[in-house]
Structure to design on (354 residues):
């Protein structure tokens, strides 16, 4: 039996540590509420300690021949994950928490291409009950025009977009399309990871645009709707997309703008799932409220939301019901002002996409 190298041994140590870190931070994000931050930091401390030790050990092990590029990429992903935990644990204000979220997204972005070299990484990016089916049809080398892509400049650039096409894409079979809008000051490059696991598991295309400004056009001229429409048109032109299953979702400002844009007469979106946003007054003046009649809307809000109190969501739900929308209102008792990732599968099932 061949002797296992120190480098391979350290991969076996670092792999579980970085996945626990990324998963742990994802769970902390879901429970993110200002009074809960000290407890969340305490819970993540053992995970941070484990990852730091594992990364130190990995860096000390010389890469085996031919694995230098893998070593660099794996170290990059792990360093982003550790940076996310450090910023969250040691930061003093909301800017550090937002920076931690960005590092968390970058860790996933760096990990995803390693899924074929590290099977546990592939499983992390799949729902548990879809792992066998998707891994069987997701080839080791992705076919052309699949996987992660960016348009409109560098990933995350204002006015651009990030895009995921499942590696198992087969042109004759149209894909459902998820359009996911980030919150204020965010970008599509980061918000895409709020949906990639579900998109990959259920063979959905995933479009994550970035607003042209610091947030979506909710004051003044609407410069984002034409851009958003053109992005969706681009995806439909280059890939086979099911025009009857185009879901528009978003968080906070992305949720607020999602209703503004998704209820317009020329919107191609067939269902809307806003989370933690508000019902913009313009919807009363531009005809959107009339167009809401019969529109499938899955409205999500947290009872603990500190930015937009839940009473605002209840009012929005009542307004949409009176307008005749095909409304599902989900008020989540333990949700604050953060994205409810655990609601994604229910949204896809509701939209007929899972």
């Amino acid at each position: 039996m061949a002797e296992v190298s120190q480098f391979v041994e350290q991969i076996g140590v670092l792999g579980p540590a970085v996945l626990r870190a990324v998963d742990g931070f994802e769970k902390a994000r879901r429970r993110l509420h200002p009074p809960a931050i000290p407890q969340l930091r305490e819970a993540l401390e053992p995970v941070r300690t484990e990852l730091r030790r594992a990364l130190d050990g990995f860096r000390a092990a010389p890469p085996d021949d031919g694995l230098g590029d893998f070593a660099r990429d794996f170290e990059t992903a792990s360093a982003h994950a550790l940076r996310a935990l450090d910023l969250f644990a040691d930061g003093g204000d909301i800017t550090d928490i937002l920076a931690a979220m960005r590092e968390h997204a970058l860790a996933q972005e760096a990990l995803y291409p390693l899924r074929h070299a590290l099977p546990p990484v592939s499983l992390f990016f799949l729902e548990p009950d879809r792992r066998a089916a998707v891994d069987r049809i997701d080839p080791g080398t992705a076919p052309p025009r699949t996987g992660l892509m960016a348009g409109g400049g560098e990933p995350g650039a204002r006015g651009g977009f990030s895009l995921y096409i499942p590696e198992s894409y087969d042109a004759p079979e149209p894909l459902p399309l998820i359009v996911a809008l980030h919150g204020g000051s965010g970008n599509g490059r980061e918000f895409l990871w709020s949906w990639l696991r579900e998109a990959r598991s259920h063979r959905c295309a995933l479009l994550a645009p970035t607003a042209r400004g610091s947030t979506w056009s909710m004051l003044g001229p609407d410069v984002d709707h034409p851009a958003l429409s053109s992005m969706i048109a681009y995806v439909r032109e280059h890939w086979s997309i099911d025009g009857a299953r185009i879901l528009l979702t978003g968080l906070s400002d992305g949720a607020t703008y999602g209703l503004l844009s998704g209820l317009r007469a020329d919107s191609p979106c067939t269902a809307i799932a806003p989370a933690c946003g508000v019902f913009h007054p313009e919807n009363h003046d531009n005809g959107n409220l009339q167009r809401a009649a019969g529109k499938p809307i899955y409205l999500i809000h947290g009872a603990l939301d500190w930015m937009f109190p839940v009473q605002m969501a209840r009012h929005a739900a009542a307004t949409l019901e009176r307008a005749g929308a095909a409304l599902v209102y989900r008020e989540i008792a333990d949700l604050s002002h953060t994205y409810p990732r655990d609601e994604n599968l229910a949204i896809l099932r509701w939209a007929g996409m899972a």
User: Anything to note?
Assistant: Residues 6-114 form one domain. The chain has two domains: 6-114, 136-350. Residues 75 and 289 are 50 Å apart (CA to CA).
